Amino acid sequence: MTDKRKIDKKIKNLIKHFGFKNQDLIEIKKMYSGEFFDSNDSAYLRLLQCSKNICNKYNLVLKEEMLQKSKCKNLKLNLFRFLNFYFKKSRILKLIFPIHGFILYAEEGINAIIGLVDLKGYGFINKNITFTPYSLVDIKKSNIFAFNIVIGEDALQNNGKLSKLSKISIDKNCWIGAGTKIYGNIDIGKNCVIGIGAIVKDSIPPYSLAVGRPCKVIRTITDKDKFDFSKKINIDYNDKQFDIIRKFSGKKIPKAFKDVINGVPFNSMNKKLAYLIDITRALCFEYNLDTTSIVRKQEILDTLFVDHGKNLIVGNGIYVDLLGTIKLGDNITIGENVFIGGNIKIGSNVKIGDNSILFSSGHSLISKERIMNWSIKQGFYEYTQYQHIIVESNLIIGKNAIVAPKSIANCDIPENALYVKNKIIN
Q1: Which runs of consecutive H residues, i.e. helices, occur in 215-326?
Q2: What is the dihedral of CA 53, 54, 60, 64, to 10 degrees?
Q3: Is the confidence at residue 111, as pLDDT, over 70?
Q4: Nearest to residue 393, comparing CAs of 338, 322, 327, 336?
């Protein structure tokens, strides 16, 4: 599709679905074209408000879907309700992203300006993804975005009274780690992996593994980075964690869950495992509701963190990737909007600040291993892996801190810091 056809489609979207008139869209056409435009233009200001409203609408539909799930006995929607929510979400996503392919999945917390982001399809968009109002973003197919990602400049480029958007291009088959921020006029090449908590301000060549603050290429991804299905980890799991899985899965523990806690690559689309993940999402949602009673909140904590010590305090906004995988000692305080996933072991007397991320669940570095595939034997499958994070006792993890996979935290981690293995990066 040519640039002119793309812009025409975006303009038609505004006229048809948001009540704009063609003669009022001169400045917005310039903006979509990457030219200087008047950011005080009334139609542009109206577009910002329409974008906020439509993103809020999408998030409300997702919340309603989770609310319906939480009311079901098995925390699972029937086919009719599932399809009803699926098509509701699809219609709204098409309004936010008028240039798009098939959007595989998009969670709650999307923030974007209508028409500024082009999605070529088969992308996976996790929770709390912000596309800022200050950049045109072109995303090719089969990209994976973790959560709490910000893409786009933090201000318009100004020239006198006129403004211009920066341009960001993300080629196909990339995986963008949680907590990443991407700025500037940059290109990220195909098949790249951007590490957790990275701050990207320069272009990244294809097939790169890039990490850090600022983000730098540390090496090229090769076939040597294929998943190792024989390598295991050991974090001393016990019967409590298996018992909670039996509660939802029956007497037999799914092999996929055993692979999860052993750190072996597993099929994340395995039906039994996907059901456990759905249950985890639904429980987190219910816990975060203001209407959930104190007694029920404790029941949910005892399920999400089945192996925890005494005096566990958890704030609202908690996000757990999969129940039964986290071990907590005594006197643990977890703040607001904390994301925890992977094989996590936290000692006693630990405080985790608001908006922190401890996440060691991840995909293969090789793009063909992390893309969804299909076979007669497995059906749809996509392999991922739970690495480990260990936090020793008597530590404080500051607000907005990020702890990377394979890390063993043995010191306090400051606010806003990235902790990688045994190193603090501010």
Answers
A1: 239-249, 255-262, 271-288, 294-304
A2: 150
A3: yes
A4: 327
Is the distance from CB of 9 to CB of 126 less than 8 angstroms?
no
CA distance readout (Å), 117 to 188, 329, 406: 15, 44, 33
Q: Is the peptide bond before 265 cis (omega within 30 degrees of 0)?
A: no
Q: Are 261 and 42 in contact (CB under 8 A)?
A: no
Averaged over 111-123, what is the pLDDT? Answer: 92
Residues 353-374: what's their mean pLDDT?
Answer: 90
Q: How far is CA 103 from CA 34, 114, 210, 261, in A?
A: 25, 16, 25, 30
Cα distance between the two ends of the chain: 42
Q: Dihedrals φ, ψ of 354, to 5°?
A: -55, 145
Query: For residue 135, what are its two tokens?
Result: 């950049």
**Least confident piece of the model among 158-167, 187-196, 256-265, 388-397:** 256-265
Q: What is the pLDDT of residues 178-213, one digit of tens each?
A: 999 999 899 999 999 999 999 999 999 999 999 999
CA distance 118 to 275: 31
